[in-house]
Specification:
The complex is a heterodimer of chains A (296) and B (75). In chain A, strands 5, 6, 7, 9, 12 and 15 form a 6-stranded mixed sheet that branches. In chain A, strands 8-18-16-11 form a 4-stranded mixed sheet, with no helix packed on it. In chain A, strands 13-14-10-17 form a 4-stranded antiparallel sheet, with no helix packed on it. Helix content of chain A is 19%, strand content 34%. In chain A, helix 1 (2-16) runs parallel beside helix 4 (106-114). With 296 residues, chain A is α+β, with helices and mostly antiparallel strands. Classes of the chains: A alpha+beta (296), B mainly beta (75). The interface between A and B is large, with 89 and 61 residues.
C-alpha cells in the first residue's frame, strides 16, 4: 500500500517536529506484521480487527454487507481518511476524499501537518523566462502515481517595481491567470498567495495585486486514463503543460498582456500493489487478448 | 466476465476487479468523515504490528499526531 510506504518516508521528519504517526485498519496483526516487515515500516500500524475504533469514529464503510468478501475482511473497513490532531488530541484538520483510491502523497501530508509549503523534489523542475517574467515549475514528489495527490508548485517571478493584477481583479485588468493541462491529469483547487490591495486613485477603486515571487500550489494526480491499476505502465512519464498569462504594470503604466508557457516531464511510477491484484490483472489481460480490445 | 460488467467506475477509475465487487462501491459525497475539526477523537487503544498495545492519546507528540485510516495494508 503506497500510502503507508510514503508515510514511512516522512515519519522521521514528522517525529523531529513533534508529530507522532499512526495508521489504523481492520487488518489482523499478522497481516500488518508481514507488511511492516516487507516494507520496513517502523511507525505503528494498528490493528482494529473488530472495527471497534472505526465504528467509534463513525467511519465504517456501510456499503459492504457482513457476508461479502469475508476472507478478505471487506466488511468493517473504514472510509479512508487522515486526521491531524493537536497536542490535546483535538482534530485540527482532516483530509477525506469521496473516492477511496484518492489520497495525499507523503510529501503533501508532511507539508500540511507542518503548516508549510511543500519542499520540491530536486529531480523534477522546468523553467522559462522572457524579458520580464520567469516561470519555474516544481513538484512535491519525484514521480506521479495513480490517484496519489501530489502538489505542483508554480513560481512566477515579477520584477521589482512591477505588479500583476491578482485573480479576482476585474477582467479589464487582465488578472494573472494560470493554466495547467495534460491528458490523464486531475487538478485540485489552485492555492494563490494573498494579494495586496492597490489604491487606483484615478479610477477611485482598489484592485488586488501580486508582486515579487508569486507561488501557486496546485494539487495534482494522474488518473486511470494513463495508468491502469496493476498493469504495466504504458508510458514512463507524463507531460504537464503550464501556461501563465499576465499583464505587468508599474505605478503609472501597463505593458501588453503576455503569455509564458513551460512544460515539465514527470516520471510515472506504479503503486505498491498487493500480490492478489495480479490475479485479476491476468484475467483482464487474457480477456483483452481474446477480444482484441481493451476492457471498458 | 468482462464486457457485461465493466471495470471503470463512475469516476473513471479502473481496477482489474470488476465493478460489481463490493469493494468497488463508492459512497456519496456526504459519506461520514467522523469527528469534526475542533472535536476530540474517541479513545484509541489497539495492538500494533508487533502485537504491543498502543494508546494513541497517551502517545501524542508535542505538536500532535497524524492518524490515518486505510482500507487495508494487504489488498
Amino acid at each position: 500500500m503506497t500510502q503507508l510506504v510514503q508515510l514511512q518516508q516522512v515519519a522521521d521528519e514528522l517525529a523531529t517536529n513533534g508529530i507522532s504517526l499512526f495508521a489504523i485498519s481492520n487488518d489482523p496483526v499478522e497481516v500488518l506484521s508481514e507488511f511492516a516487515h516487507e516494507h520496513a515500516i517502523t511507525f505503528p500500524l494498528l490493528s482494529d480487527a473488530d472495527s471497534e475504533v472505526i465504528k467509534a469514529f463513525g467511519i465504517m464503510n456501510q456499503l459492504i454487507d457482513p457476508d461479502e468478501g469475508r476472507s478478505m475482511r471487506w466488511h468493517g473497513i473504514a472510509y479512508p481518511g487522515t486526521y491531524f490532531l493537536n497536542a490535546d488530541g483535538v482534530v485540527a484538520d482532516k483530509d477525506f476524499h469521496q473516492h477511496h483510491a484518492r489520497r495525499s502523497s507523503g510529501a503533501t501530508v508532511l507539508a500540511r501537518a507542518l503548516g508549510r509549503e511543500v519542499e520540491l523534489a530536486s529531480s523534477v523542475s522546468a523553467d522559462a523566462t522572457n524579458e520580464e517574467i520567469s516561470v519555474r515549475v516544481g513538484l512535491s514528489d519525484e514521480s506521479l502515481r495513480l490517484e496519489m495527490i501530489s502538489t505542483l508548485v508554480v513560481d512566477i517571478g515579477i520584477p521589482d517595481g512591477l505588479h500583476a493584477y491578482a485573480p479576482g481583479a476585474p477582467e479589464q485588468f487582465t488578472p494573472l491567470a494560470l493554466e495547467v493541462g495534460g491528458a490523464g491529469l486531475r487538478l485540485g483547487e489552485f492555492r494563490w498567495p494573498e494579494p495586496h490591495p492597490l489604491d487606483m486613485v484615478d479610477l477611485d477603486m482598489t484592485v488586488p495585486v501580486l508582486s515579487g515571487n508569486v507561488r501557486v500550489a496546485v494539487p495534482i494526480t494522474v488518473t486511470s486514463e494513463v495508468v491502469r491499476l496493476g498493469h504495466e505502465l504504458t508510458s514512463n512519464s507524463i507531460v504537464i503543460d503550464v501556461s501563465v498569462v499576465t499583464q505587468l504594470c508599474d505605478d503609472t503604466a501597463c505593458g501588453l498582456p503576455q503569455q509564458l508557457s513551460v512544460s515539465i516531464e514527470v516520471p510515472l511510477e506504479r503503486l505498491v500493489e498487493p500480490l492478489g491484484i495480479q490475479y485479476y490483472v491476468e484475467r483482464v489481460e487474457r480477456t483483452e487478448q481474446a477480444q482484441g480490445t481493451p476492457v471498458t | 466476465m468482462g464486457d457485461e460488467v465493466g471495470f471503470y467506475d463512475e469516476f473513471g477509475f479502473y481496477s482489474p476487479q470488476p465493478i460489481d465487487r463490493a469493494t468497488r462501491r463508492q459512497p456519496g459525497l456526504d459519506h461520514p468523515t467522523g469527528p469534526a475539526v475542533g472535536e476530540s477523537v474517541p479513545a484509541v487503544l489497539l495492538p500494533n504490528q508487533s502485537n504491543v498495545l498502543i494508546d494513541v492519546q497517551a502517545s501524542l507528540g508535542s505538536a500532535g499526531a497524524i492518524v490515518v485510516f486505510h482500507r487495508s495494508a494487504y489488498w
